[in-house]
Design a protein that fits this description.
The protein is of the alpha+beta class. 31% of the residues lie in helices and 13% in strands. A hairpin with a 5-residue loop joins strand 1 and strand 2. Helix 1 (27-38) crosses helix 2. The longest helix is centred in the N-terminal third of the chain and has 12 residues, at 27-38.
């Protein structure tokens, strides 16, 4: 997350690799924590960027991201979240270049 240089980084155990889920209340607790985080709207005028392992994304969402891929969700008014789209590794490079130009 720091390497992306998009703003302050806050380390958290809200989303962890499922291989260590037993140390954080078990698989169900990790999945529920990730889903709650995705369902929480960001502060007005901002976005929340969550960097995590694909296995927790696969278990907590309907999407299994590829290596280096970004998946965009929107917190729903009813407390859930909705899949919006994907950013491939190539998309990240294009965004970085557009930011430099």
């Amino acid at each position: 997350a720091r390497l992306m240089n998009l703003g302050p980084v806050q380390a958290s155990t809200a989303v962890v690799n499922l291989r260590v889920a037993e140390y954080f209340g078990g698989r169900s607790a990790v999945v529920a924590s990730a889903q709650a985080l995705l369902a929480t709207p960001p502060a007005k005028g901002s976005n929340t960027l969550i960097v995590a392992h694909g296995n927790v994304a696969r278990a907590a969402t309907p999407v299994y991201p590829d290596e280096g891929e970004g998946v965009v969700f929107q917190a729903g008014a009813e407390g859930g979240f909705h899949f919006i789209g994907r950013l491939t590794a190539e998309d990240w490079l294009r965004l970085k270049q557009a930011r430099v130009d």
